[in-house]
Amino acid sequence: METTAMVDSGATALFLDQLFVDQHKISTFPLRSPIRITNIDGSPNRAGNISHFARLRL
């Protein structure tokens, strides 16, 4: 697959958009415990918590 990505050098983890995962049929696996996601101002992210992960080779 070929795609364009944005690199955020201040991010503390790597994230994939759910629509991108669905469109490219990327397999995901449930996390044991969801990861709470907040915006820079501390408010909850409207996309919700992270509940799954994917194994990708970049």
From TrEMBL:
Name by which UniProt lists this protein: Peptidase A2 domain-containing protein
CDD domains: retropepsin_like
Superkingdom, taxonomy of origin: Eukaryota
Species the sequence originates in: Coniophora puteana (strain RWD-64-598) (Brown rot fungus)
